[in-house]
Write a structure and sequence with these properties.
45% of the residues lie in helices and 11% in strands. The longest helix has 31 residues. The N and C termini lie far apart (69 Å).
Length: 573
């Protein structure tokens, strides 16, 4: 992990500083440009490794850098009324723009002079990268408007050099510490994403990776589940689900083969890997087609695509869509939804999907209702919401909570400390975990929830200030996972504890009115304190002032404080 590798962290900081001093100060822009370079480097390395493996095993492999490539704008485009001669001429003209793919390798262009390198990467390598998965791919579609904007040859040269050094450190760390290279690469990318130190539009900000892992351990997604995030940002929740599934499959494979599973717990107590070696080709195809994400920010869509591709998902399904709008018509599609939707701001009332019935423009409420609609019956959601959703007095707040309790099996409400999302925001949040039982049009014959498990997280293993420094231990993370999966309404009844279960009937009664706040059901413990008699307290104060003296000596003391204490003592006799 990066926290345990200061050299790697230092190299990444150097890379950031070079982009900053080179004129690219917007974190999102810098991440995009760095990501493109990381892609170019990794693409070359993976291709060379596959070639070497093919030579060793005798299998056939066609390099991505073999043959010629023509940029899309110069390719010959057939026309219905063309003669054969005209078609031949078009192809002949297009061949003038052919590029030898070998020159597009990182290992080739990094040796060029600064000016030549910048022109080559801008004009040839980057267009090749955008076209990598073919004209019809989702990746190519969203890369269409992407631009390579590193402005200075010197900055490109320095960036290429630093990225080479970062890869050397990663490879050494992989050899010495036994962590898979792909996982270390994922850590590097996660650290780059963590540098987005300001909230985005409409309250968007990055969810800490350990909170995503916690939520994945609560939901426990399985191979074959269709998984979505309707406000996916950089794809953290989709990646969290992917890593959980891959890790579980790797553990199962090790047990079947009676071999040791060697991945150790990370600093937060979770076991994760991105390396899908245990997956058959069919399982990998199933998993890759199971992850679906949507976002309304084109830059975040590209970052999400890159993030998942960096972790080994070749063709992610992340798209540019407003999932609250009339244009988004999906319903009852997904087995799992994991999300941290935008908390603030409102949507244009005229553009809200007609299927959303809460009668509000508050996005934190609309997203939860929309997530309920996206779930299949029996599907489960794990969603972060501001704590105001738990107790807000408005009609839409109460209606949403009633929907969660009656049409869903509301399994858990986990309140988080207010510092979890620092430095982005200090808002108090909670995790809602619920399973859809009744559809929007079904008549509810019996409320779906029987009991709700409440937990108050006090610590998440990091300081709750803007620095979010790692502390010893992992706070309540593993305790939450263990106690949630062992919850029992018959035994989890102690309302003075940090977790307990509450029956639906109590939540729904007239007094509580579907309030889901932890404090509503918590029983405060008041410790009885016994105090000494006032005269004894005054004696101790006098002794502290003049020492242990008899009454005759005390009468001679001229201290004003002592005289006042003696007068008080006389009064209370």
């Amino acid at each position: 992990m990066l926290q345990n590798n200061p050299e790697l962290k230092s190299k990444i900081d150097q890379l950031w500083n070079k982009f900053w001093s080179g004129g690219i100060s917007n974190p999102l822009t810098a991440i995009e440009q760095i990501t493109y370079l990381l892609f170019m480097k990794r693409l070359d390395e993976l291709d060379q490794k596959k070639q070497a493996d093919a030579e060793f095993t005798g299998e056939k492999y066609t390099s991505k850098f073999e043959g010629k490539w023509i940029p899309s704008e110069y390719r010959a485009k057939a026309r219905e009324d063309d003669t054969q001669k005209e078609t031949d001429k078009r192809h002949a003209d297009a061949k003038m723009y052919e590029i030898d793919k070998r020159t597009l390798r990182w290992s080739e262009f990094k040796r060029m002079q600064a000016e030549d390198m910048l022109q080559h990467v801008q004009g040839k390598v980057f267009p090749f990268l955008k076209d990598l998965n073919g004209a019809e791919s989702n990746f190519t579609h969203h890369m269409k408007n992407a631009v390579f904007i590193i402005p200075k040859p010197a900055l490109l040269v320095e960036a290429v050099k630093t990225i080479d050094e970062i890869f050397e450190v990663m490879e050494r760390d992989s050899r010495e510490n036994g962590q898979a290279f792909q996982d270390i690469q994922g850590d590097v990318y996660e650290m780059l994403l963590s540098e987005i130190a300001t909230a985005g539009k409409n309250g968007q900000f990055r969810t800490p990776r350990h909170i995503i892992k916690l939520m994945a351990d609560l939901v426990q997604p399985q191979l074959g589940h269709k998984i979505a995030d309707p406000a996916c940002g950089s794809g953290g929740f989709l990646l969290g689900a992917y890593q959980y599934i891959v890790t579980q499959l790797a553990v199962a494979e090790a047990k079947r083969n009676k071999t040791k599973f060697t991945i150790t717990e990370d600093e937060d107590g979770f076991v994760r890997t991105s390396v899908a070696a245990a997956l058959t080709e069919k399982a990998q195809a199933i998993l890759s087609s199971s992850l679906w994400g949507y976002d309304i920010d084109a830059t975040m869509v590209r970052l999400g695509l890159m993030n998942l591709m960096m972790h080994g998902i070749d063709e992610p399904h992340i798209d540019y869509k407003d999932t609250l709008s009339k244009s988004f018509v999906e319903e009852s599609e997904y087995d799992i939804v994991m999300a941290n939707p935008p908390f603030t701001g409102s949507i244009d009332k005229g553009d809200i999907n007609e299927n959303l019935q809460l009668g509000t423009t508050k996005t934190e409420l609309l997203f939860v209702e929309n997530i309920y609609r996206l779930l299949k019956k029996g599907g489960t959601a794990c969603v972060i919401v501001p704590q105001g959703v738990l107790f807000g007095s408005g009609g839409a707040f109460k209606t949403l909570r009633q929907l969660l309790v009656e049409r869903c099996d509301l399994k858990a409400v986990i309140t988080l400390p207010s510092g979890v999302f620092k430095p982005y925001a200090g808002v108090s949040t909670a995790i809602l975990l619920f399973t859809k039982v009744w559809g929007p049009k079904d008549k509810v014959t019996q409320p779906a929830t029987e009991h709700v498990w409440f937990y108050e997280m006090a610590a998440d293993g990091y300081s709750l200030d803007d620095k979010r420094s790692k502390k010893d231990g992992n706070g309540d993370l593993q305790d939450i996972v263990a106690k949630y999966h062992a919850r029992n309404p018959a035994t989890d009844t102690d309302r003075t504890a940090k977790c307990f279960m509450v029956p639906r009937t109590e939540i729904a009664d007239e007094k509580n009115n579907y309030d889901l706040s932890f404090s509503r059901y918590k029983t405060d413990v008041f410790e009885e304190v016994h105090y000494d008699a006032p005269a004894l307290i005054l004696d101790r104060l006098i002794q502290a002032e003049v020492g242990d003296v008899d009454d005759a000596e005390l009468a001679k003391v001229q201290s004003g404080i002592v005289r006042e204490l003696l007068a008080l003592k006389e009064l209370i006799r």
